[in-house]
Design brief:
This protein is α/β, with parallel strands linked by helices and 478 residues long. The protein folds into three domains: 10-169, Rossmann fold (3-Layer(aba) Sandwich), CATH 3.40.50.12160; 176-409, pyruvate-formate lyase- activating enzyme (Alpha-Beta Horseshoe); 417-477, Beta Barrel (OB fold (Dihydrolipoamide Acetyltransferase, E2P)). The chain contains 14 helices and 19 strands. The chain has helices at 14-32, 48-63, 87-106, 122-131, 147-155, 201-205, 213-225, 251-259, 279-287, 304-309, 316-329, 348-361, 388-411, 454-457, and strands spanning 39-44, 67-68, 77-82, 111-116, 137-139, 160-162, 183-187, 189-190, 209-210, 230-234, 266-270, 294-296, 334-341, 365-370, 417-425, 432-437, 442-446, 461-469, 474-477. Helix 12 (348-361) packs parallel to helix 13 (388-411). The chain binds S-adenosyl-L-homocysteine, iron/sulfur cluster and FE3-S4 cluster (F3S). Iron/sulfur cluster is lined by residues 192, 194-196, 199, 201-202, 236-237, 273.
Length: 478
């Protein structure tokens, strides 16, 4: 392996991390003297990156003597880890915070915190400061590692606001409380340098910074030892992994190293920016058995004009050429994308281009969003070409077009036998289990006739025969 020189300046110093450990000890001493074990409720909005951050928050909370609970009613501490990507995510957080006001009146000792991407925006932090006085802790994405100190100060009846923008810091060696096996999320980099004109992420997450390969691989080895079978490598743009390191492994090289780890059977990653996806990555995906044949490649729009206004830095033709390359190397690959409907400069013709690109690309599934104006982004100032009503009509039409494609794609799986990593009992039917194919498709399947117990199957890869296709998932039999 190449020598991966550390960029020491970006790592939070050992002294600072020690200071936080001291706060963990302090809070846990206080909690140990309480009559009952205090309970914490953490709710996460937004992307996998936020979920991964919440796993660290939960890890720190457990270290500080809390147990986790699943509702605000029985919680001594409530924390919302927020997302700023669209307005509706922000409104939900304000709604939930409002509802907690009465609860706190009845239970004045309760601590309430909000953290994550929303808090990295000044106007939001200001609103909470002036209008949500029952909130005790406000901290941004860059302050995550200081949570023990923030909590300790809040326990001493201070209102804590920690929203400095220290873009560029990385910290290691924080406890992580993951969901049970088989799936583990491992961040490989933070932040984004792309500045798509609609997007708030670069402002709330700071510039791209990569973890050292050794730290990533050590974490992957640890999750393998703990019984996890599938690793999802996370970053806003995983293809630019290590561009900020002086001598790091390239993303495809990192992938190969992760595949060498015993016990890990599947490797996925999110998200790839189309402009940065390399031939080496495509080749590595095709060659490495453990890399799932699945790619999420957000196109956002099918119109060159809109793509340019979005600052995506590829054309429709360039994108489709990459997609063709991927399919040549892996004919069975499952492809998904993100689409934004109603970007300000999008006309009806541009929207029709998006419809036509969906028909051409034939994605297995799309994640689609109506454009949401974000304060401080370049697109904020652009006037709208279409009315809200037209945007919603277009959105519905697009879903109709895509649902037909998704259903047709899923129909092709009927009769096939797929390797399914079993994740758990289905939420809707306790007599079926749920899992994913290598391509990432959800399969709900019956297993009772096999004579095996759910516990024996969860966390293993099983052969499942697909018997029926739905738009969003498959039904099968073990
Ligand atoms: N880094 C990833 C994910 C970014 S956020 C990427 O580039 O693909 C996930 C998705 O949210 C984006 O792909 C985009 O489709 C959508 N999105 C981002 N900003 C948005 C906005 N202002 N309005 C609507 N959708 C948005
Ligand atoms: Fe946002 Fe673009 Fe960065 Fe994705 S690549 S996080 S859409 S700025
Ligand atoms: Fe949302 Fe922040 Fe992720 S804005 S999409 S939680 S990086």
């Amino acid at each position: 392996m190449k020598n991966n020189i550390k960029s020491e300046n970006k790592h939070i110093s050992l002294e600072e991390m020690q200071k936080q450990s001291d706060f963990i000890a302090k809070v846990s001493t206080v909690n140990a003297q309480k009559e009952a074990v205090p309970r914490a409720f953490v709710e996460t909005y937004g992307c996998q990156q936020n979920e991964s951050d919440s796993e660290k928050i939960k890890g720190m909370l457990l270290d500080m003597g809390y147990e986790m609970c699943s509702d605000t009613g029985s919680a001594d501490l409530v924390l919302y880890n927020t997302c700023a990507v669209r307005e509706n995510a922000e409104l939900r957080v304000f709604g939930n915070l409002g509802a907690l006001k009465h609860q706190k009146r009845r239970k004045p000792d309760m601590l309430i915190g909000v953290c994550g991407c929303m808090m990295q925006q000044e106007h939001i932090a200001d609103t909470i400061k002036s209008k949500y006085k029952h909130v005790d802790m406000v901290f941004g994405t860059h302050a995550l590692y200081r949570f023990p100190q923030i909590l300790s100060e809040a326990m001493e009846n201070q209102r804590v606001f920690d929203i400095e923008d220290e873009s560029g810091s990385i910290f290691e060696n924080i406890s992580v409380q993951r969901d049970k096996p088989p799936l583990a999320k491992v961040p490989i980099m933070y932040g984004c340098n792309n500045f798509c004109t609609y997007c708030i992420v670069p402002y709330v997450r700071g510039r791209e910074r990569s973890r050292n390969a050794e730290d990533i691989l050590n974490e992957c080895r640890a999750v393998a030892d703990a019984g996890y079978k599938e690793i999802m490598l996370l970053g806003q743009n995983v293809n630019s992994y290590s561009n900020d390191l002086s001598d790091g492994l390239k993303f495809h090289e990192l992938l190969r190293e992760v595949c060498r780890i015993d016990g890990i059977e599947r490797v996925r990653f999110m998200t790839s920016h189309p402009k940065d996806i390399s031939d080496e990555l495509i080749q590595t995906m095709a060659e490495e058995k453990k890399i799932c044949k699945q790619l999420h490649l957000p196109i956002q729009s099918g119109s060159d004009k809109v793509l340019s206004d979005m600052n995506r830095r590829y054309t429709r033709a360039q994108y489709l050429e990459k997609l063709a390359k991927v399919r040549r190397a892996m004919p069975d690959i499952v492809l998904t994308t993100d689409i934004i409907v109603g970007f300000p400069t999008e006309t009806q013709n541009d929207f029709n281009e998006t419809l036509s690109v969906l028909k051409e690309a034939e994605y297995d599934m799309i994640f689609s969003f109506i454009y949401s104006k974000r304060r401080g982004t370049p697109a904020e100032k652009l006037p709208d070409s279409l009315t809200d009503e037209q945007k919603h009509k277009n959105f519905d039409e697009m879903l109709k077009v895509q649902n037909e494609i998704s259903k047709r794609k899923n129909d092709a799986y009927v009769g096939r036998t797929e390797d399914v990593l079993v994740e758990g009992v289905s939420k809707t039917n306790s007599e079926t289990l749920t899992g994913r194919t290598e391509g990432g498709k959800v399969v709900n399947f019956s297993y009772l006739s096999s004579g095996l117990q759910a516990d024996e199957l969860i966390g293993t890869i099983q052969k499942v025969k697909v018997v029926q296709a739905q738009t969003w998932s498959l039904l099968g039999e073990l």
